[in-house]
Amino acid sequence: MEFDDNARLDASQVSDQRGRRGPGLAIGGGGLGIVGLVLALILGVNPADLTGGSGGTDSTVQTASDLADRCTTGADANRDLDCRMVGVANSVQAYWGQALEKYENAETVLFTGSTDTGCGAATADSGPFYCPSDDQVYLDLGFFDELRTKFGAQGGTFAQAYVIAHEYGHHVQDLLGKDCQGTATGASSCSVRLELQADCYAGVWANHAVDTGFVTALTKADVADGLDAAAAVGDDRIQSEFQGRVNSDSWTHGSSAQRQKWFTTGLRTGTPSRCDTFSGSI
Fold this sequence. Notes:
- It is a single chain.
- The protein is of the alpha/beta class.
- The chain has one domain.
- Helix content is 43%, strand content 10%.
- Strand 6 and strand 7 form a beta hairpin.
- The protein is globular.
- The two termini are 29 Å apart.
- About 7% of the residues have low confidence.
């Protein structure tokens, strides 16, 4: 995925808190949360049940890089991962800003180690997630390496964009009042339907990415990377890898095939209303 070299980036949509640390573990209102997801699948509980944590460690706050100085154009996004996160956030929010009348921008927070959030303390083990309490997306960029090295995804710039777009899909759900009551798990659970809808919303943005003016083109190879990343975080694939067996009763995010199906639905139609994962079978 290539950004328009001349596109103007708005770094104010991304906060760099790397070097700041907080205690415990939090899993927010939806996200990929690989390590937390693995734990939940093995223990047979909803990731939300793992929210919280106690204790803490003192740390020295390091001076974070100034994104506003380094990330000003699409050319910066093409050569720098930090700036790419800015470019993706800009593009995703540019789309939803015109597609959803009540849309309000959300901030992406980059952190390392651990950080405090409106959903409690979070660590890198949480994986990327959206916190509805403070309307922010949280991301340790090391997740992208783990997605490739530990979970077998091919990686690539669009795989990274898919992850961010998925989390902003949860922000859209929050603005629309879409949420799950309780902590039930299973192949047809509300949690799975919520996650699949976020995948579909990510696909909808991908359909319109070029229209936002930030992205120049979306290739077949880009789409393949996105589908590959979606498959890598399927509940069945993770269970098979870490447990050697699949138990759909503990699913919280959906199977690899389901995640690919709904991302493709959003990509093909480009229409948010086609992302109704709450009606009928999924």
